[in-house]
Specification:
The protein is α/β, with parallel strands linked by helices. Helices cover about 40% and strands about 20% of the residues.
Length: about 200
């Protein structure tokens, strides 16, 4: 049974960001390659600021606390929700994910291009609170290819894979809500399309 949290899932409404900085929201279904694309962008454009999300899921092999995610307990996460410490947060595949708000606001306020890699629910919250945020949806070349990628990671149980695929179908239907859609078919082509969108 899911625990009831102190406040409802949602973003904390705050003032619109100053024009000097910019918030970029990158989303897409699980397994589409968001993380790999973002790592390539950050390597090529160190001026980008990546906002590290917080999660209650266990680290995957090779993941480092504070670099890939901040890994915390459910109790700690719920405490931070109650204290309104998240810009957005949501539950996905049985775990909580959220964006710590203070670091993002500070970086955008200082004129940085800040990138969030978040799930659909979080992206919707950001769009509601910050209409000027630029949203990008990454699509797979096909649903069959997406399933192949998720299974190829060999990181999830069959039940978890089934949940991710069901969720992916719902998320793909929401792609038209975003400012731009990019199909991640050829990796290098996709990175260049992201660069063109972000840097003109």
């Amino acid at each position: 049974m899911m625990q009831v949290l102190p406040i409802q899932s949602g973003a904390t409404t705050t003032k619109e960001f100053p024009s000097s900085g910019r918030l970029i929201v990158l989303t897409g279904p699980s397994g589409v390659g968001k993380g790999t694309l973002l790592r390539a962008l950050l390597q090529r454009h160190p001026e980008l600021y990546y906002s590290v999300s917080m999660t209650t899921r266990s680290p995957r092999p090779g993941e480092i606390n504070g670099k890939h995610y901040y890994f915390v307990s459910r109790a700690k996460f719920e405490q931070l929700v109650a204290q309104r410490e998240f810009l957005e947060w949501a539950e996905f595949a049985g775990n909580y994910y959220g964006t710590p708000r203070e670091a993002v606001l500070n970086q955008v306020g200082s004129g940085k291009l800040v990138v969030l890699e978040i799930e659909l629910e979080g992206a919707r919250q950001i769009r509601t609170s910050f209409p000027s945020a630029h949203s990008i949806f990454i699509l797979p070349p096909s649903f069959d290819e997406l399933e192949k990628r998720i299974r190829g990671r060999a990181q999830d149980s069959e039940a978890a894979i089934a949940r991710r695929l069901q969720r992916a179908q719902e998320e793909i239907k929401a792609a038209d809500e975003f400012d731009i859609k990019i199909v991640n078919d050829d990796f290098e082509t996709t990175v260049k399309a992201l660069e063109a969108d972000l840097f003109g």
